[in-house]
Design goal:
Layout (H helix, E strand, L loop, with lengths): L1 H5 L5 H25 L2 H38 L5 H24 L1 H8 L4 H26 L3 H24 L5 H18 L1 H6 L9 H5 L2 H25 L4 H14 L1 H23 L2 H38 L7 H26 L3 H19 L5 H25 L12 H4 L10
Helix pairs in contact: 2-7, 2-12, 2-13, 3-4, 3-6, 3-8, 3-11, 3-12, 4-6, 5-6, 6-8, 7-8, 11-12, 11-16, 11-17, 12-14, 13-14, 13-15, 14-15, 15-17, 16-17
Subcellular location: Cell membrane
Membrane topology: Multi-pass membrane protein
Main location: membrane
């Protein structure tokens, strides 16, 4: 066991425990909803779920990562985290305001095209984005200060509350997708309250942090983050747009994706501590430590991906019916393509963090852009809708991972930067982030 723990970065176990509960909550959430809702209502919930975790994670994980990165760097210099939290909160609020205004402006179109005319689901979408903005900003502080038990605690409370709330909804016989969506608002907000003590201790103290410390790499980081979520989540939305009447496939695909992406939840427990490690070794120029951590991480996620793939192909078609009451529209071939996409996506996640630690934000954004272009090309090809979105996920992920590997070969040598000013030295690293 000690040898196994030595393969992963510090903090993985603490974060992994919370993430395990949060991951379990996702399965319970969708399982109870699948057994309680009609196919049409479950399809609406599936679309809400996909939008929240595409757009919300896409824009707020970069805020968490940049806050964590700057807090971690200042911590090594004995500087307080308060000014970073203040800037991060203002930044998250500004991004949230833009998203809310855009959602309100498209209220009727979103309700009609994605939620079968149910405008209340659009309001739940807005509430979910608000909750994510608050949660990810506070997680940035916890990660940057290496308070991984608190970080894992926030994830665990979020997951635990989701389980309790959806269980109560199921026992009460609630059959409206609205209330299953509201869980995505209440649980993360309550988890933030649980972790307020260390966050409040970080408030105040020190001179304001220059905006450049957070903004210098944020634009490209946000592009990469959004595109990465498009690759992994857009399939369900595409099914709804390409075949509006095929509510069975949209719901079944979300259930299948939740199963095959179990390794991604496990990787999330590594991510919050892996990224500071890569950034630190890159900053100090410790090439052996950088490449050693990168190789170990790739080995771990490859093992996770292969184990998950075998389980998904063998048991996936049966599990989605048994756990989520999903329609019997996907077979083992479908699960094979989805599992292949997940394995390649895991490689891309690790390689992408290595690029960021080497100050190569543009290279990472380029790789995700090429991946999304490949995904769109496959999605628009003439073929059955389900097969198109599955192949698009696999091909898009492979293109991203392959591009990143080539880019890393062209410049993977960490360069020490001990003499640079703190704002410059930390401007292009990365830290934290979890679904």
């Amino acid at each position: 066991m000690r040898r196994l723990l030595a393969l992963v970065p510090p903090g993985t176990v603490a974060v992994g425990a919370g993430l395990a509960l949060l991951g379990l909550a996702s399965y319970v959430h969708l399982a109870v909803a699948g057994h309680s809702l009609t196919e049409a209502d479950y399809s609406s919930l599936s679309v809400l779920w996909s939008i929240v975790f595409t757009v919300g994670i896409g824009v707020f994980i970069p805020v968490e990562q940049e806050v964590a990165r700057v807090v971690a760097a200042r911590r090594t210099q004995g500087l307080p985290p308060g000014p970073v939290l203040a800037r991060g909160a203002a930044l998250a609020a500004a991004v949230l305001a833009v998203m809310v205004l855009a959602t309100v402006a498209g209220y009727r179109v979103l309700a009609d095209r994605l939620f079968a005319g149910d405008g209340d689901m659009v309001l739940v979408l807005i509430g979910s984005l608000v909750a994510m903005a608050i949660a990810y900003t506070t997680r940035g502080v916890l990660s940057g200060l290496s308070l991984f038990p608190w970080y894992g605690g926030q994830l665990g409370v979020d997951g635990g509350l989701r389980i309790v709330m959806v269980a109560l909804l199921g026992l009460a016989g609630v059959s409206s997708p609205l209330w299953y969506g509201v869980v995505l608002v209440i649980a993360p907000l309550a988890s933030v309250l649980f972790t307020l003590p260390p966050v409040l201790r970080a408030v105040g103290g020190g001179a304001p942090v220059p905006w450049g410390a957070l903004l210098r790499g944020l634009g490209l980081l946000t592009v990469s983050s959004l595109l990465s979520q498009v690759v992994v989540n857009v399939g369900v939305i595409n099914v709804r747009l390409l075949a509006p009447d095929d509510v069975a496939t949209a719901g079944a695909l979300l259930s299948a994706l939740v199963l095959v992406r179990i390794p991604l939840f496990v990787f999330g427990s590594m991510q919050a501590s892996l990224l500071p490690g890569l950034a630190a070794t890159a900053t100090t120029g410790d090439q052996a430590a950088f490449h050693g951590l990168l190789r170990r991480s790739l080995g771990v996620v490859t093992a996770l991906g292969l184990i998950g793939a075998v389980g998904a192909v063998l048991l996936g078609p049966w599990l989605v019916g048994a756990l989520f009451d999903a329609p019997d529209v996907l077979d083992q071939v479908d699960f094979g393509w989805l599992a292949a996409g997940t394995l390649a996506y895991l490689w891309a996640m690790v390689l992408g963090q290595a690029l960021l630690a080497l100050n190569r934000h543009r290279a990472q954004a380029t790789a995700w852009t090429l991946g999304v272009v490949a995904l769109l090309a496959v999605t628009l090809a003439p073929a059955p809708v389900a097969l198109r979105v599955e192949l698009a996920y696999a091909v898009g992920s492979v293109v991203v991972a392959g591009t990143m590997a080539l880019l890393l070969r062209g410049g993977a040598r960490p360069v020490p930067t001990p003499a640079r000013p703190i704002d410059d030295a930390v401007a292009t690293g990365v830290s934290g982030g979890i679904r």
